[in-house]
From TrEMBL:
Lineage: Bacteria, Pseudomonadati, Pseudomonadota, Gammaproteobacteria, Enterobacterales
Domain of life where this protein originates: Bacteria
Entries under InterPro entries matching the protein: YcjX-like
Annotated PANTHER family: ATPASE, ATPASE-RELATED
Organism: Klebsiella pneumoniae
Protein name: Putative enzyme
Length: 267
């Protein structure tokens, strides 16, 4: 009977416990890393001076405790919480080093529910909170999923004005006279793709945000994936080449398509 009661309680606990996946996103240097570090620190020190007035469970003293727990997916890099906290408390204090890709940290929050029905089954519940640091640059690629390659190329061409024209000079020089129907010159195409990536980085350094594919502005993420070569294409192509009008999610290299499709599926 005691064993049955224990198993029944465990079953009820699993049914009542909840899981929440929270994505924190923003463009580079927008403060994502500092925000997540501060939030996690406040939660872990909920009973020693934490200030979370907008969190009802904390405000109503129903949040009993918080601890770090192992990630469910070890294929995702861990969020550098300890390193960031050490930098904040260092002498001199420094802002946490910005992250360069997806990372996450997982917490278990023990709380008393204010749901009268749940209180009939157990006094406390656990919320497993997964906080994901997600690069905002990848979100910039979402509109590409609704475009074909030709229309996207035309849109990018329309932006090459003023300083953008100056920063893209090498790319435009390499593209001069390129015949999209001629046999592929892989070396030239690689140079063109590299020049387009350099153009994106120049835009980013100067504070511009509408750069596509935004995924290519995260070099640390893609450096190991050398198959990712991508560039804007010609803005006028013969109708005999329908592949230029394919949706971008099927026409782009896998690394760029995966970035946009991953967002579409939802983190």
């Amino acid at each position: 009977m005691k064993r049955l009661k224990t198993e029944l309680n465990a079953l009820v606990n699993r049914g009542v416990d909840r899981h929440l996946r929270l994505a924190v996103t923003g463009l580079s240097r927008s403060g994502k890393t500092a925000f997540i570090t501060a939030l996690v620190n406040q939660l872990l020190n909920i009973h020693t001076g934490a200030r979370l007035p907008l969190l009802s469970a904390a405000r109503e003293e129903r949040l009993l405790g918080v601890k770090r727990v192992p990630q469910r997916d070890f294929g995702i890099p861990r969020f550098t919480y300890d390193e960031g906290l050490a930098q904040l408390y260092g002498q001199p204090p420094m802002w946490p080093t910005p992250t360069r890709g997806v990372s996450e940290i997982r917490l278990a929050l023990r709380y008393r529910s204010n749901d009268s029905l749940l209180r009939h089954f157990k006094d406390t519940s656990t919320l497993y909170l997964e906080i994901v640091d997600y690069p905002g640059e990848w979100l910039l690629d979402l509109p590409m999923l609704a475009q074909d390659y030709l229309s996207w190329s035309r849109q990018m061409t329309g932006l090459l004005q003023g300083q953008r024209a100056e920063w893209s000079a090498r790319w435009r020089q390499l593209c001069a006279g390129l015949d999209p129907l001629a046999p592929a010159d892989e070396a030239r195409l690689a140079d063109i793709a590299a020049a387009w990536t350099d153009y994106l980085h120049a835009c980013k350094r100067e504070g511009l945000h509408f750069i596509q594919p935004g995924a290519l502005s995260c070099p640390e993420k893609w450096r190991a994936r050398r198959r990712c070569s991508f560039s804007r294409g010609p803005t006028s192509t013969p109708s005999a080449k329908p592949s230029w009008r394919r949706p971008i999610k099927t026409a782009t290299p896998a690394c760029c398509a995966n970035a946009t499709n991953t967002i579409a599926k939802g983190w």
